[in-house]
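BUG: 3D viewer hangs when loading the predicted structure for this chain

Environment: internal workstation, default settings.
Expected: structure renders.
Actual: progress bar stalls at 90%.

Input used:
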Amino acid sequence: MVKKESVLFICTGNSCRSQIAEGLLRDMAGDLFDVYSAGSHPSRVHPASIMVMSEWGIDISKHTSDSINKYLNKDIDIVITVCDNAKKVCPDFPEKVKRIHWNVDDPFNGWGIEPSDLGPYRTTRQELKNRINDFLN
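Structure tokens produced before the viewer hung:
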């Protein structure tokens, strides 16, 4: 059996962008990749992230917000930073790790989950889906 490549998405809080990206890649190509996410300053998975992913039938409600340090000694193949801040503070992974950087706007604007709060999360979800499609092709 061939080992799946592992992909780690990194942002600052591991509450929005990296969580959405993890959910999308798992949904789109979980048979090809082991997918994780982490943050330089992890907090919690944002309820709006959970909500907009559920609109597409993807459940990220059981995801946890983890520190990058949890993955430093794991056998990660590809690290994708999804914000400039994460790229700056991302620790060194072994040289063989492929590094990719996407600067995606942060949808976070407080912890609200009113319908009026969801627009930026939907925009982020679509941008990440487009980028993941490009990554897979």
